[in-house]
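Problem 12. The chain below contains 74 residues. Write out its predicted structure in token notation.
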Amino acid sequence: MGWEFFVYAIVMMAVSFLLQRKPKTSPPQAQEFQEVPTAQEGESIVVLFGTRDIKSPSVVWYGDVATEAIKKRA
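Solution.
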């Protein structure tokens, strides 16, 4: 009696796989660069103790903002 449930589960997984919506593929869009505050010569260095919002941070490095295409393997 237990094997019928196993077969039923396999059939239902196959049906749900066949009926699921297929995602729409779109070409990659150009990356939009956000406006990042930069460090300037002569600007004071803020020292922060605790948790606060800094209105004008001095950012020296913002991370790798380049994009890389995802390649599918066969």
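Discussion. Residues 2-19 form the longest helix (18 residues). Students who got a different answer should revisit the alignment rule from Section 12.3.
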